[in-house]
Design a protein that fits this description.
The complex is a heterodimer.
Chain A lengths: L14 H4 L4 E12 L1 E5 L8 E10 L4 E9 L2 E2 L6 E9 L5 E8 L2 E6 L4 E8 L7 E8 L3 E9 L7 E6 L5 E10 L2
Chain B lengths: L4 E6 L4 E6 L2 H12 L8
Antiparallel strand pairs in B: 1-2
The chains are: A mainly beta, B alpha+beta.
């Protein structure tokens, strides 16, 4: 019998082995200049935790990158419902500061013509309880650690992604369900 | 002048559609931005 993670050609995986797969892609979008992205049905009852991986750059200019949770294609824009804080460190010139917000969106990253790599983990977005978020982002100017939560007790099935300057966005966003 | 575009993806089917924002959607989008202050470290 095959023993993960080493397999031989032609080996048949059992259900028990397949059930050990830790992450499963539940959604993605390829951005080719759109200003906003709405991903529907990326959160289901199949997973409690989801990792969202951003690879985003602009054609020109820089902007803050924003994310809202949505249900049925409608983002939740409740004022003050996305509560978060973090610390960023700049490079190559070191500058550091704390930041926080209680806004109608999660804001934890910015992007420019250089790609930004950001990752967040959302816990229980599909459950009708508040949704914790933790993550990081890195680009050519700074790195950041951030955490927070969305305080609405709503079951969400999607994400809405936009930015502070209506810039055209390029790259991709991938969503992975994390198995318990 | 071209209007900004949006992409909507149904992750169950993988179907993605990019369309120009309508005037109503553009107004809503601009209101969203107005309500979303830029990050202090942008």
């Amino acid at each position: 019998m095959a023993t993960p993670p080493t397999f031989s050609v032609g080996a048949t995986l059992t259900a028990a082995q397949m059930n050990q797969i830790g992450m499963w892609k539940t959604g993605s979008v390829t951005l080719t200049g759109q200003t906003t992205a709405q991903l529907n049905n990326c959160f289901t009852s199949d997973f409690d935790k989801y990792k969202v991986i951003y690879n985003i750059r602009s054609g020109s200019g820089s902007a803050s990158l924003y994310t809202r949770l949505s249900v049925g294609g409608v983002p939740n824009s409740t004022a003050g419902s996305y509560i978060y804080g973090g610390r960023y460190v700049g490079f190559p010139t070191v500058g550091a500061a704390d930041f926080n917000g209680a806004d109608p969106q999660f804001g934890f990253s910015f992007f420019s013509t250089s790609p930004t790599a950001a990752e967040i983990v959302l816990t229980n977005p599909y459950s009708a309880i508040p949704t914790p978020m933790s993550g990081t982002f890195m680009n050519v100017n700074a790195g950041c650690f951030v955490g927070g939560y969305h305080n609405q007790s709503t079951a969400y099935d999607g994400l809405y992604i936009y930015n502070s300057s209506s810039l055209a966005m390029y790259g991709s966003v991938t969503i992975l369900g994390i198995r318990n | 002048m071209e209007k900004p575009t949006k992409i909507v993806v149904d992750c169950l089917t993988g179907i993605a559609e990019t369309t120009e924002m309508t005037d109503e959607e553009l107004a809503e989008h601009e209101a969203n931005i107005a309500d979303s202050p830029s990050l202090s470290f942008e």
